[in-house]
Design brief:
homodimer; 482 residues; mainly alpha; two-stranded antiparallel ribbon; 21 helices; globular; binds potassium ion; transmembrane helix (chains A, B); ion transport (chains A, B); Cat_transpt (chains A, B); transmembrane (chains A, B); metal ion binding (chains A, B)
């Protein structure tokens, strides 16, 4: 039987940290003179206490190593447990949500999805909106660490391709993990601060700059405005596009860049394909809108760039009603969301790396048809890729599409219209944010969805964020017996 | 350089045969006293002559064996050339279509897709409707032979799994192929005659029974009525369901059944899964309609059975406006179309066999996550499956989904609405038949689509029908150099 105490200990500590961060919105609400600050002190007390109790109860589990099995339980358990506590401020304080909506909002935050269950954001106490931003920022930070440290060892969806040499034995995970994690955290914090400064330079208020920087670098997409990014048309759209794109690039490349080496970033096939594909999408939609709606070039370029980058990176900010851009533009945006950013970033969805491997794998399959006796291998970055990685990637893609299909059916079962079910499934499995359909409220929230649909979406956000397989493995009875 | 003469010879002979079959609608129109019979005699003369000229010009290519390379060229060339001649009656005679529409109609026939480009079917000369049925019946016959003889040798999409022992060397293809082909043709003809008899027994006129039997056994779905199968509600729906289901089962099992062995059919995992999944879909939709629309059980069961079997098998007959059945029913039907029937039948789409392998492959990938050192293999029918077949199947599924996505974008480019583009892409890549959207006419035809959309759909029908890879391989420059 698996020893759950190390898992309990880590979750306990993370919960306590989450509780402590609740003091930030408490301070902000207090600074803004809102009595709502007491709510955050109360939930902080509850959360820190619960976390400490769990950590102390599992203190025997304090060790330096985690088995693969424990790593699987840990990642999913973190993303199931923390939203429970992250939801407390939404339930006890304004907006006084029920458990379903509050858990949905916190899960949407920690998975960096960005779909909201709240109908009126403009009137919320500032601390509550900031808390939504903090949840996304923490979720983004967590996902970078999971993608860099855990997924490669867990061999989920071909991520073993990104295993650094130091990770070869499990016993070494944690010490080495500390070095890498601290480098990644410095980059993440640095980019966030740079984003705040730039946002303020292009005209945002200090609060809005912080709020949106938190949800930009995490490719989360929460906003404190019902109008989302339409509140800040113009230069902020370009500024945001740059930071969203950075947030969707492999963070390890930034670490190499900081040590003076620009080549790895520039030569990375994922980065090149990601920028190229975004460029194509922007070019096609700009030309299409100029021809179809006789739109002027410069504003069109700005709006299209922002909304394409926002969808491609899975951030999900909106500055325009993209459904008004015509069917071609909308279809391209939907497909862009099913691609996503680069691995080892805060971006979600299938990711560019997997498509590059997938295209190569299909090409090799077709080539094998007429030269069955030649040894044909999948190549990436001019080097052959192990079969086990290729199989893992292709199986991941198939599983992603099948899960997407099943989710559409399941959401339709709850009574949603086809369009709503299709975009809600898209937004939750790929952690994007917006959805469209008659059940979506004016501010783009899912407040009017049936509860069953909200729970399904919460589960899908968690499964999608953790790369599907690492969650689904827990459903195999043999996993628990091993 | 590849020797195209054997390909030219076979295509010439097949074209001549196609020309000869045009004498059947000629005889029928003559029998009905329609002067239109002369059109068919004219196109028959043209087609037979062109075929003979091609065959004589390529007579040096007359041999007993085909290389793999030649097999690839042959299959695609057959499905590109025959529609050119099959289209002649639609252009020269009533309904006097242009090249785009006529080629579309013939391609839709020979690929057993069943989408029509003709706006009024009820008023056509009987011979023209019969010709549409004959095109589908010949297309279905062709596909069974391709699926049984060519695809396994060509190793397309994992079809090498169905390679019988006699096929191991290419030189043996043709002689052994003759035996198998003649058995399959006898079964196909026998089932068609049985279907005619049953259709007449449940109330169809002789002509309608023949017309619909031709398009039932081919899972084609053309009808001579604008109302499609709604003309024959009641018992004919059950009769048709049975024959559509039979047409979507592996024909080789029927051959074994005829030699007195029922076990292979009954034990075939594909057949069992196919019937089980259809049963689930029918049960869910019946219950859903009874609850939602307070529908009566027996008529609901009949309508749902017919329309589910029609979509699952990719036949595409309609007896009801299924968009009125609610979102859940519609979504299930769309997914059913993306599954399809069994391999080595006239059914299209991804097919049950590939889903069974795909589910197993994903399961093995997930199992490998926690027991990386155990040897885990994909099993089918209790036997391990070679890795090359599994990879081929998973790559096929990925390619199918990607092609579907690209096709939706391309169709949107031509100006179609999103709903139309999505269902038109679905219907053409999976050879189903119906599509929905504002550009679809009252009788379900694509007559009002832009020409570019019709050509895209024609190409997609051909690519989908020939299992994608066998066509796409021709686009690799190295294929022609090999
Ligand atoms: K997002
Ligand atoms: K069909």
């Amino acid at each position: 039987m698996i020893d759950l105490r190390p898992v309990g200990y880590i979750i306990g500590m993370l919960t306590s940290v989450l509780g402590l961060t609740m003091l930030i919105p408490a301070a902000v609400d207090w600074g803004y003179g809102s009595a709502h600050w007491m709510i955050f002190v109360e939930t902080a007390t509850l959360t820190v206490s619960a976390g400490l109790v769990l950590a102390i109860a599992s203190r025997d589990g304090l060790r330096r190593t985690l088995s693969i099995q424990q790593s699987f339980v840990l990642t999913t358990a973190v993303w199931l447990t923390l939203p429970l506590f992250g939801a407390l401020p939404f339930m006890i304080g304004v907006p006084h949500l029920g458990l379903t909506d509050a858990y949905f909002e916190a899960m949407s935050g920690l998975t960096t999805t960005g779909t909201t269950a709240i109908e009126h954001l403009d009137d919320l106490p500032p601390g509550v909106n900031l808390w939504r931003g903090i949840l996304q920022w923490l979720g983004g930070l967590g996902i970078i660490i999971v993608a860099m440290i855990f997924l490669p060892v867990m061999k989920v969806g071909g991520m073993q391709f990104f295993r650094s040499e130091g990770f070869d034995t499990l016993g070494k995970i944690l010490p080495r993990a500390m070095d890498i994690s601290s480098a990644l955290i410095r980059i993440y914090v640095g980019l966030t601060i740079a984003c705040v400064v730039v946002y303020m330079a292009v005209g945002m208020t200090g609060f809005d700059a912080v709020m949106h920087a938190l949800t930009t670098l995490s490719t989360g997409g929460f906003s404190n405005y019902d109008a989302s990014f339409a509140t800040y048309k113009g230069a902020p759209e370009y500024a945001s596009s740059i930071f969203m794109a950075l947030a969707a690039m492999p963070f390890i490349r930034f670490a190499q860049l900081m040590s003076g080496n620009v080549t790895p970033l520039w030569r990375d096939p994922q980065v090149r394909a990601f920028l190229r594909w975004m460029g194509y999408a922007i070019a096609v939609i700009v030309i299409y809108r100029m021809i179809r709606h006789e739109a002027a070039f410069w504003p069109t370029l700005r709006e299209v760039t922002f909304n394409v980058v926002s969808t491609f990176t899975g951030t999900g900010f909106a500055s325009e009603d993209v459904t008004q851009w015509g069917h071609l533009a909308f279809t391209i945006l939907i497909i862009a969301g099913l691609i996503g950013g680069c691995t080892s970033s805060t971006a979600c969805s299938v990711k560019v790396f997997r498509y590059l491997i997938l295209f190569e794998a299909i090409k090799v399959q077709i080539q094998r048809l007429y030269s069955p006796h030649r040894l044909l291998r999948v190549h990436y970055d001019d080097a052959p890729v192990e079969d086990s990685i290729v199989n893992s990637v292709v199986a991941f893609f198939s599983l992603f599409i099948l899960t997407y299909g099943v989710l559409i059916i399941a959401l339709t079962f709850t009574g949603l219209e086809t369009e709503t079910a299709m975009t809600a499934a898209w937004t939750s499995i790929a952690n994007i944010g917006p959805a469209w359909g008659p059940e979506i409220t004016a501010n783009g929230s899912v407040a009017k969805f049936p509860d069953s649909a909200k729970w399904l979406m919460s589960a899908a956000m968690c499964i999608g964020r953790l790369e599907l397989m690492s969650v689904l493995v827990l459903f195999l009875p043999r996993f628990w017996r091993a």
